Amino acid sequence: MSTGFAGRVALVTGANRGIGYEVCRQLADQGVVVYLGARDAAKGEAAAAELTAGGGDVRFCAIDVASDPSVAAAARWMDAEAGRLDILVNNAGINFDVQVRTSEADLNTIKETLETNLFGAWRTTMAFLPLLRRSEHPRIVNVSSEVGGFGDTPGSPFGLTKMGGVLPAYAISKTALNALTVKLALDLKESGVLVNAVCPGFTATAPGTAEMGARPVREGAEGIVRAALLSDDGPTGGFFRDGQPLPW
Ligand code: NAP
Questions:
Q1: Nearest C-alpha neighbor of 17 from the set 144, 174, 205
Q2: What is the mean pLDDT for each group of 10 consecutive residues in the chain (248 residues)?
Q3: Helix (H), strand (E) at residue 1
Q4: In angstroms, what is the span from residue 190 Cα to ligand 1's centroid?
């Protein structure tokens, strides 16, 4: 399909399944050349092949966001392959630890979670920044969650103060990811890189969640794609769901 976004180059991390996979599909539908990031080559190649069979230009990129060497190698590979990056979607995320009490958390698990959900996004951003700086429309989208927010969205059951004392690793990793979004956006403002955090909302990527009221994956992905395709006068340093601001 030929759109105003045709030929833009995107990398989506953690995209062999779930929301990341759907973000790849929707970006490809807009004519974006999509690099589908995955830490498992067989799964990543299969997912990229599926989306390519559906008509998109989707290519596998090996990247484990928790690993310095893997991320560095992915950035070198992308430099040789595409020479620039227009859109980075930091989507990879782990450990919805809703059964864990904060006072009883295993700190090694907390650290592992931060290694992916916070440092993964941070190291990937730093590694790919030289390529993003070569773009005319650079965008970074950090896939976050309302569960890490101090804010109080009326009617929402999600947020730091709303779910009791559980979910320590995941919620705190997203609070920190939001803070990273603010600092990065300020740091990169002069260079035109728009950096935003997006919450997809409770989205049906895990078995049984649709029955619990989670929204379809297509809907969850749409707000992320919207932030990836912002016009040059779009917001930076914000937190959004479905294009609407969310309280931090
Ligand atoms: P998911 O179905 O569990 O998929 C997570 C993806 O991340 C998988 O492809 C996984 O790869 C990948 N991943 C994990 N660690 C990685 C690493 N170190 N390097 C590269 N890839 C890695 O999750 P999802 O529901 O689609 O969620 C996607 C994002 O949305 C996450 O950041 C999540 O926190 C956020 N979010 C989700 C919801 C929701 O309700 N689903 C709500 C708010 C926010 P493997 O297949 O190899 O494990």
A1: 205
A2: 86 98 98 98 98 98 99 98 98 97 98 98 99 98 98 90 96 98 98 98 97 97 98 98 97
A3: none
A4: 31
Dist CA 64 CA 230 (whole Å): 27
How far is 23 from 222, CA to CA, in rounded Å?
A: 7
Distance from C-alpha of 73 to C-alpha of 80, rounded to nearest angstrom:
11
pLDDT on residue 2: 56
Q: Whose CA is nearest to atom 29 of ligand 1?
A: 91
Report DSSP state, residue 203.
Answer: B
Q: What is the pLDDT of residue 154?
A: 84
User: Taking the CA of residue 163 as centre, how many other CA atoms within 13 Å lie in the half-sphere pointing to its CB?
Assistant: 24
Distances, alpha carbon 237 to alpha carbons 127, 152, 196, 242, in Å: 20, 19, 5, 16
**Ligand 1, atom 2, residue with closest C-alpha:** 18
Q: Which listed residue (122, 170, 239, 240) is catalytic?
A: 170
Number of H helices, E strands in the chain: 7, 8
Residue list, ligand 1 pocket, CB within 6 Å = 13-14, 16-20, 39-40, 43, 63-66, 91-94, 116, 120, 143, 145, 199-200, 202-203, 205, 214
What pTM, to 2 d.p., does this model score? 0.98
- Is 170 a known active-site residue? yes
Per-residue model confidence (pLDDT) at position 152: 84
Q: What's the pLDDT score for residue 167?
A: 97
Task: Say how many C-beta atoms besides its own lie within 10 A of residue 57's C-beta.
Answer: 17
Amino acid present at 17: R
